Amino acid sequence: MTYPFQRLRGTRSRLSIACIFTSRYTYRMNEKPNPTRKCLVDAATKLFYAEGIGRVSVDAVAEKAGLTKRTLYYHFKSKDDLIAAYLDGRDQPNLEQMAGWFDAAEGGADKKVEAIFTNLARVARHPKWKGCGFLRTAAELAATPGHPAVKAGARHKTNFEKWLASALSSHHVGAAKMLAREIVLLMDGAFSSMLIHPNPDYVNAAGHAAATLIRARMAGKHQA
Q: What is the pLDDT of residues 90-133, one digit of tens each?
């Protein structure tokens, strides 16, 4: 999947994604891509997402990438840094995908947000889907809250919440920041439920609840 900075043109919600990233991401945009590092991150992404970070060794990542462990440690100081890079690498593509679903859906903000959940439920039916990689990684690292990967996950969730608030505000939904947080809670709650009950209906139910919240907020605005 391409990164959002390669395709962020023409739509307000996608442009708002670019606005929420910090100078840290702007700096990365100006960096010359390193093919060896990318190869390692791609290999780590496939293994970490499929099997979990605890079950995948650095040796396995190096073998998957077709490189030596020495080369891996040249680009990453530790496995912890590699795990963080794995999540950072998923941040922008995931945000772009959410924005794309939002943009493509017809109707008001309620229908557009519900479309995000509907598409997530569709993706969740794929046999290779293993849930939210950010939440799964955070669960594995629950005993180490200061881990760089936990911080990477927190950045992603914050970025999505900021983008959603901006998208809702652009559709004239009141109290957009609080509403965005409530919708994020519904989404992450659905993801968490699916770790126990692998049933995409939970995601659809969360989407219905999110749309109901938006309609209630809009109705209250018109009555005020």
A: 999 999 999 999 999 999 999 999 999 999 999 999 999 999 99
**Domain span holding position 63:** 33-76
Length of the chain, please? Answer: 224
- CA–CA separation, 98 vs 184, rounded Å? 12
Decide if 192 is inside a domain. Answer: yes
| φ, ψ for residue 48, nearest 5 deg | -65, -40
Total domains in the chain come to 2
In terms of domains, do 110 and 67 share one?
no
Rounded Cα–Cα distance for residues 10 and 17 (Å) = 12
Is there a single domain that holds both residue 121 and residue 165? yes
Residue 206: which of 120, 84, 90, 100 has the closest Cα? 120
Predicted confidence (pLDDT) per residue in 175-214, tens digit: 999 999 999 999 999 999 999 999 999 999 999 999 999 9
From its phi and psi, is residue 157 left (phi > 0), alpha (psi between -120 and 50) or beta?
alpha
With a threshold of 0.90, does the pTM exceed it? no
